[in-house]
């Protein structure tokens, strides 16, 4: 056990302890007298005893002091317990009034009501509402909201809340008021208000049943020209949800507000989404193609929550993946439909492998439906979101499209207006699919990434072949032994000599720890294409040779499988190079050359396929990560690819060089390939590479090309590096989102001096921990730079720990998000591991540590 003197052991909340609320709150009227230093919040709750439950009314509160408490109009007796207000109530239904005073401008946690860029806004998920007013702050209490706001008119001309506006007017002293009603009962985490000096980009959308909805994206006046892409994405998302899921929007207005200070990406508050401005603002000069895509995806994600999250919400926070896994699945499919589905799948799998697989393999591993937490904010993870989405995808694969749609229809109809569970969702899949998903449910309860071993045997004489499959799930914290899972694996066999398909694609439902799939009439040695489309989120180990992988990378008819074969070939090559000091690069070079010249492939796919796996993904394959050796092996392979194929890279580069900016799938693909080619030309050591990059940097008409060139220069030694960084800084010094890129590009640099450069940047006048985007742009990015962060001096660990400790005092949620990379100490050699541990111990021993950081750090030490 840890020696924790300074932190009281925080309470653990357990899923098995769930009890329905003793009191319900069908109605609330909120009255805000807004001002940054002192906001008065009056709440009038109609409360009703839930069934025959007993016990006092418990209204959660966090750092609130009751200024008045009345029951049915009279002063009432009350007591406080852990910040909550407790009132004994005699009858079954009462009117409870409370009053508190809060100070938004001093709210650095950015939870509850806070100030950002001179405006006031809220963030309530998961438990921020209790920082605004006393309330049963749990998602299974559904309430109708009436909200009245009063504020200084000059400073806050726009007053928004959930639902529809019902009135507004003038007050004395230059103040004004507005009132909003939300007809849909909702949990408190979906409450929102905004008061600010904002301008709107407006549009209308007519729903499939003919309802006209006014859409508005609210930003600072000068940012209005950067909101068209978000608005267009919203319209597309609304139409898509009608076509694909039959889901229609249900209010007369849909508002989105962008704020610069935000802990996460965005928030789906009913009718009033609040966004981190990085997921709204875009124009070609300041946003990359990746930013454009992320904006469309996040706008869609938050919009889709209106059904998967708001109309049907979660019974308790252990069910978080019910709304998040399903909504990520929905936004991924939406994005796939906007451009290349194959490239989108590759990107999603890359994200899963970069963020979720390491989580599942480390000390913070948890099931998609966790069993306990100390701080729920720590569970907004890649496991809940991205692995959760894969679970929905597997059920969709098992059911097939028609039954899957029938199952989601059933779910939306049956649970509309309620707070549901993951179990409710799976039961709908079972009922509409006419199948038994008993074993599949293990995906919700067992943590860890399943491993599948696949090998093919073939008897030339008899024509019999077999695909032998084995599965196992590694132990994770609190779960030493695992049962076999239900794995939907799409497989196909190709002939090694003819290259022809010898067994059509089939969906194998692997349910036992071992299975043999038999094939007849196989005349030549077969090569298995397995887990096609990444049909199950598992790690597949095969004994396929470099030649077989090279063949699949060039001939498989499933684009994901082609990409996967190339990645496996690259990984095998790199892992061997690390182990032996030198690997055989020829098969990779041949496969890349073949891919570059395949006329049937689009450029976006080629660009993805020819990229080497990241340092950290290579590290994930090794028993003990050796960051330096991995870096050297990867650089050597990059250099050889650059040199051997230099003419091909130049040809690919030149083909797109003169393009003017356009935002279309084809234009994006061309830019991506151009920038990948630039990277390889640079890796080749060609003497003109830096000037090529610098010319691109200076002449670019879009941020993708400018940042691509900057990234190439920033990792190099040319004197143009400093010039480019300075030019970039000066050009964008008044644009926070672009300055974030300036910090990130330097934090990701592969130069030897990156650790020192990053420490210096943390002292730069534009660096601040108070803004989450800025904190992540430097500290978060640096800890993703495997070689720099894991410098064997331990300087990276000390630096990141210092930043986490400092940030924890301001913003525990964002501080806790920076911790996981430090927790992976078991994966490194003894020197590094010890240094990482001692930083974690230092963090845990810090006086006044938040429970957010305490949970992450103490679990990482266990
Ligand atoms: N529900 C949001 C994510 C979110 C969660 C917590 C927040 O609090 C700081 C903010 C946003 C989503 O899935 O987009
Ligand atoms: Zn979400």
UniProtKB/TrEMBL annotation:
Q: Which domain of life is it from?
A: Bacteria
Q: Which keywords does UniProt give here?
A: Aminopeptidase, Hydrolase, Metal-binding, Metalloprotease, Protease, Zinc
Peptidase M1 membrane alanine aminopeptidase domain span: 230-440
Q: Which Pfam families match?
A: DUF3458, DUF3458_C, Peptidase_M1, Peptidase_M1_N
Q: GO terms for molecular function, please?
A: alanyl aminopeptidase activity; metallopeptidase activity; zinc ion binding
Q: Which InterPro entries does this one have? A: Aminopeptidase_N-like_N, Aminopeptidase_N-like_N_sf, PepN_Ig-like_sf, Peptidase_M1, Peptidase_M1_dom, Peptidase_M1_pepN, Peptidase_M1_pepN_C, Peptidase_M1_pepN_C_sf
Q: Where is the Peptidase M1 alanyl aminopeptidase Ig-like fold domain?
A: 448-542
Which cofactor(s) does the record list? Answer: Zn(2+)
Q: Show the catalytic activity.
A: Release of an N-terminal amino acid, Xaa-|-Yaa- from a peptide, amide or arylamide. Xaa is preferably Ala, but may be most amino acids including Pro (slow action). When a terminal hydrophobic residue is followed by a prolyl residue, the two may be released as an intact Xaa-Pro dipeptide
Q: Which GO terms describe its biological process?
A: proteolysis
Q: Where is the Aminopeptidase N-like N-terminal domain?
A: 76-190
Instruction: Tell me which EC number(s) this protein carries.
Output: 3.4.11.2
Q: Where is the Peptidase M1 alanyl aminopeptidase C-terminal domain?
A: 547-861
Family under the similarity heading: Belongs to the peptidase M1 family.
Q: What is this protein called?
A: Aminopeptidase N
- Biological source species: Stakelama pacifica
Query: Source taxonomy lineage?
Result: Bacteria, Pseudomonadati, Pseudomonadota, Alphaproteobacteria, Sphingomonadales
């Amino acid at each position: 056990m840890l020696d924790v003197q300074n932190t009281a052991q925080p309470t653990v909340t357990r899923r098995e302890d769930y009890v329905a609320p003793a009191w319900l709150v069908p109605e609330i009227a909120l009255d805000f007298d807004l001002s940054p230093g002192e906001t008065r919040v009056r709440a009038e709750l109609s409360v009703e005893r839930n069934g025959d439950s007993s016990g006092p009314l418990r209204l959660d509160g966090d750092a609130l002091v009751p200024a008045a408490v009345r029951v049915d109009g009279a002063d009432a007796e009350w007591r406080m317990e852990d910040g909550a207000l407790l009132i004994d109530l005699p009858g079954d239904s009462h009117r409870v009034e409370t009053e508190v005073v809060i100070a938004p401008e001093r709210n650095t946690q950015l939870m509850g009501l806070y100030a950002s860029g001179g405006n006031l806004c809220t963030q309530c998920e998961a438990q921020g509402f209790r920082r605004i007013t006393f309330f049963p702050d749990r998602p299974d209490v559904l309430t109708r909201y009436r909200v009245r706001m009063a504020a200084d008119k000059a400073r806050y001309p726009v007053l928004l809340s959930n639902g529809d506006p019902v009135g507004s007017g003038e007050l004395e002293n230059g103040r004004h008021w507005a009132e909003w009603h939300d007809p849909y009962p909702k949990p408190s985490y979906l409450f929102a208000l905004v008061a600010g000096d904002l301008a709107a980009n407006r549009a209308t959308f007519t729903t499939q049943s003919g309802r006209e909805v006014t859409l508005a994206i609210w930003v600072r006046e000068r940012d209005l020209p950067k909101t068209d892409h978000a608005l267009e994405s919203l319209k597309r998302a609304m139409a898509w949800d009608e076509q694909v899921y039959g889901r229609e929007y249900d209010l007369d207005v849909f508002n989105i507000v962008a704020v610069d200070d935000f802990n996460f990406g965005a928030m789906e508050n009913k009718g009033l989404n609040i966004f981190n401005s990085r997921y709204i603002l875009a124009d070609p000069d300041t946003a990359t193609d990746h930013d454009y895509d992320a904006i469309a995806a996040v706008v869609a994600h938050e919009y889709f929550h209106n059904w998967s999250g708001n109309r049907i919400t979660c019974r308790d926070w252990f069910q978080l993946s019910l709304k998040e896994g399903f909504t990520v699945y929905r936004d991924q499919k939406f994005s796939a439909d906007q451009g290349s589905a194959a490239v989108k799948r590759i990107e999603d799998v890359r994200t899963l492998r970069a963020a979720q697989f390491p989580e599942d393999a480390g000390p913070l591993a948890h099931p998609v439906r966790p069993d306990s937490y100390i701080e729920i904010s720590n569970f907004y993870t890649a496991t809940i979101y991205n692995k959760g989405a894969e679970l929905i995808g597997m059920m969709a694969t098992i059911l097939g499209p028609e039954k899957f749609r029938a199952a989601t229809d059933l779910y939306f109809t049956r649970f509309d207006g309620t707070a549901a569970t993951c179990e409710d969702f799976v039961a709908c899949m079972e009922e509409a699919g006419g199948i038994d998903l008993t074993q599949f449910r293990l995906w919700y309860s067992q943590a860890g990434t399943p491993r599948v071993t696949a090998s093919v045997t073939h008897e030339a004489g008899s024509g019999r072949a077999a695909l032998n499959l084995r599965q196992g799930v590694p132990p994770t914290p609190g779960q030493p032994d695992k049962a076999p899972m239900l794995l939907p694996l799409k497989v196909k066999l190709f002939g090694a000599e003819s290259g022809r398909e010898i067994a059509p694609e089939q969906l194998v439902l692997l349910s036992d720890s071992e299975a043999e799939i038999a094939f007849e009439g196989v005349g030549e040695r077969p090569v298995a294409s397995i887990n096609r489309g990444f049909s199950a989120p598992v790690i597949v180990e095969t004994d396929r040779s470099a030649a077989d992988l090279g063949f699949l990378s060039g001939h498989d008819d499933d684009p994901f499988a082609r990409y996967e074969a190339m990645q496996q070939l690259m990984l095998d090559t790199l892992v061997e190079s690390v182990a032996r000091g030198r690997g055989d690069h020829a098969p990779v070079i041949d496969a890349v050359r073949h891919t570059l010249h395949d006329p049937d492939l689009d450029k976006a796919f080629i660009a993805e396929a020819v990229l080497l796996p990241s340092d950290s993904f290579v590290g994930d394959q090794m028993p003990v990560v050796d960051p330096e050796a991995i870096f050297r092996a990867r650089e050597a392979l990059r250099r050889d690819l650059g040199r051997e194929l230099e003419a091909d890279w130049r040809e690919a580069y030149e083909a797109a060089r003169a393009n003017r900016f356009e935002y279309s799938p084809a234009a994006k693909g061309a830019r991506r390939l151009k920038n990948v080619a630039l990277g390889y030309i640079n890796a080749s050591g060609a003497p003109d590479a830096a000037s090529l990059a610098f010319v691109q940097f200076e002449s670019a008409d879009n941020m993708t090309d400018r940042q691509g060139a900057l990234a190439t220069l920033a990792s190099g030694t040319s004197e143009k590096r400093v010039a480019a960084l300075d030019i970039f800084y000066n050009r964008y010094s008044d644009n926070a989102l672009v300055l974030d890129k300036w910090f990130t590009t330097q934090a990701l640099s592969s130069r030897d001096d990156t650790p020192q450069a990053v420490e210096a940047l943390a002292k730069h006048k534009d660096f601040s921990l108070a803004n989450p985007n800025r904190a992540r742009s430097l500290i978060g990015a640096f800890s993703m730079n495997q070689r720099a962060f894991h410098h064997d001096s331990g300087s990276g660990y000390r630096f990141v720990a210092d930043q986490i400790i400092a940030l924890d005092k301001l913003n525990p949620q964002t501080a806790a998000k920076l911790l996981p990379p430090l927790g992976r100490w078991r994966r490194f050699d003894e020197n590094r591991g010890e240094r990482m541990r001692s930083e974690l111990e230092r963090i845990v021993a810090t006086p006044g540590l938040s429970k957010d950081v305490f949970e992450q750090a103490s679990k990482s030490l266990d």
